[in-house]
Each structure stands twice: as structure tokens, then as C-alpha cells.
Design a protein that fits this description.
It is a single chain. The relative contact order is 0.13. The chain is mainly α. The protein has 6 helices and no strands.
Length: 105
């Protein structure tokens, strides 16, 4: 978690522009700080909702690094784990989008 937060802050200093894309990119590193960053975005509430749900279901790069450190000697492959996290993020985003369509209909 600390390593991901450090990377996030370093990247924040490297990318000088303040943009929605930068905020979303930085939010993927660590979920707690990422959700806080996303909550301050000046975008529609529905889009912010979708992005926050996607990030929450993904878990952040920090969670991947933590899992890697725990299973490094077990022989388990990380690529399928990361792929499953991305699939979960995609399915969550699609379901949230459908929900927003239904409640705004």
C-alpha cells in the first residue's frame, strides 16, 4: 500500500496538468486515496459513480502488489489473477451502467 501511494504521489508530480484523466490514472494505484480523489472530480455524479464502482471492484494496483508479495513462492500465476480483476471491473461497470439507465429512464 505504501509503495503504491508513493508511486501515485510521484506520478502526480510528474504529470503537471490537472485533468480528469490524470485523476482517474492516479486513483487506480490505491483504492482509499483513489476514491477520495475521485469524489472531488467536477464531472457528473453518474460518471463518478461508474468510475468509483469500477475502481472498487478492481481493488487498485496496491492490492495486486500485495497479492504478488503473498503468493510469490507458491507458483501461482499472477496474469490470470489480474485478468480476473479486470473482468470483474468490466462486469461491475456494465451492471452499474445498466442500473443507471434503468433508474434514469
Amino acid at each position: 500500500m505504501m509503495l503504491a501511494s508513493i508511486w501515485m504521489h510521484m506520478l502526480d508530480q510528474i504529470i503537471l496538468t490537472d485533468s480528469v484523466g490524470k485523476t482517474i490514472l492516479l486513483s487506480t494505484f490505491e483504492i482509499t486515496t483513489g476514491l477520495e480523489l475521485l469524489s472531488g472530480l467536477a464531472i457528473s455524479r453518474n460518471i463518478r459513480y461508474l468510475i468509483m464502482l469500477a475502481l472498487t471492484s478492481f481493488g487498485g494496483i496496491s492490492s495486486i502488489l500485495q497479492t504478488m508479495s503473498m503468493v510469490q513462492r507458491s507458483g501461482l500465476k499472477m496474469i490470470p489473477y489480474i485478468a480476473e480483476k479486470l473482468v470483474t471491473m468490466t462486469v461491475t461497470s456494465l451492471l452499474a451502467y445498466l442500473y443507471l439507465i434503468i433508474i434514469n429512464y
